[in-house]
Amino acid sequence: MIEVRDLHMHFGGFRAVDGASLSIKEGSITGLIGPNGAGKTSLFNCIAGVLTPTSGQVLFDGEDVTGLKPHQLFHKGILRTFQIAHEFSTMTVRENLMMVPANQCGETLWNAWFKRGQIAVEEAALREKADEVLEFLTISHIADEKAGNISGGQKKLVELGRTMMVDAKVVFLDEVGAGVNRTLLYTIADAIKRLNTERGYTFCMIEHDMEFIKMLCDPVIVMAAGQVMATGSAEDIMQNEQVIEAYLGTGIKNKEATEGLTKDAIPTSTTAEGTQ
Predict the structure, then answer these.
(1) For range 48-68, the mean pLDDT
(2) Distance between CA atoms of 211 and 152, rounded to whole angstroms?
(3) Is residue 258 over pLDDT 50?
(4) Looking at residues 233-259, what average pLDDT do you find?
(5) What SMART domains does UniProt report for this protein, alphabetically (predicted)?
């Protein structure tokens, strides 16, 4: 579905992404992990149109979409969420969802004056769809809450809900579990699984919490220094000496010098990654 070919993203002399190549299969939940500074967020931003890569290609179902802007990719069904949720804080949760679909009738002054009946019908349909999304995500009880007043985990669920208001095909999740309590984390994980199995969503997710990755992802792609280091199942990745060395700066052969280093030495949760 998504194929990245020899992608580079340079900021002056700094190579945030340095020849990364990977593929995301349709119907998969692909994990993207790596130490801070590995280039994960920059890669996401290049795929999702936030950044224009220095060189390389991004293909979507065989079509070259390199350099397309986020709104253009949105219409193709490629959506991206952010580590810090972006909500309209003074609007209700339901209204935040109803804002998502593009080209709504009420967006033009002419229609606002002369097509009020059509606008009312459209808004009723959007409200019904938003309520269905809220029920699917088990957050109907906050439908009328101001989005700025809900918890961080609930905001992450609302971001997932936004992807359900349009015909999303592939969704890029940037640390959807960051700062979320374990109860809500399991709710988010369940929603992702159900969207994948019941609605055919393809996901690719950056995440530092390896337990969360193990719950959801196959395959897992590891990045380091702007390049793809390894690809495999979560269990295989957690036993990969190169991956452990990338995270901790030491390999299994030197484990005597690093107390407690085991196959689970990759941190299950680390400090959230900033912009790369």
Answers:
(1) 96
(2) 20
(3) no
(4) 69
(5) AAA
| Domain segments of the chain as ranges | 3-250
Pairwise CA distance, residues 154 & 143, whole Å: 11
Given this model, what pLDDT does residue 193 score? 94
Question: 266, 272, 261: which is closest to 207 by C-alpha?
Answer: 272
CA distances (Å), origin 179, targets 124, 153, 156, 245, 269: 35, 7, 10, 26, 10
Q: What is the pTM of this model?
A: 0.79
Q: What mean pLDDT comes out for the span 180-193?
A: 89
User: What CA–CA distance (Å, rounded) separates 229 from 223?
Assistant: 5
| Stretch 262-276: mean pLDDT | 46
Q: Where are the alpha helices (DSSP H) in the chain?
A: 40-47, 70-76, 93-98, 109-114, 116-136, 152-164, 182-199, 210-216, 234-238, 241-248
Spatial CA neighbour of 129 closest among 87, 165, 176, 79: 165
Positive or negative, the CA dihedral 125, 127, 132, 133 is: positive
- Would you state the structure tokens that stand for residue 69, as one six-digit string? 């802007």
Q: What is the pLDDT of residue 2?
A: 96
List phi, psi (to 5°) of 127. -65, -40
> Which amino acid is located at 262 in the chain?
T
Q: Tell me the CA distances in angstroms from 163 to 167, 172, 191, 219, one per residue in order.
A: 8, 10, 12, 22
Residue with tokens 């097509």: 115
Instruction: Count how many residues are written for the chain.
Output: 276
Judging by beta carbons within 10 Å of its beta carbon (0-12, 13-18, 19+), is residue 76 exposed, middle or buried?
Answer: middle
Supply the pLDDT for residue 148. 92
pLDDT at 17: 97
- Is the predicted pLDDT of residue 217 greater than 50, yes or no? yes
Query: Looking at the domain that runs over 3-250, which CATH code has it been given?
Result: 3.40.50.300
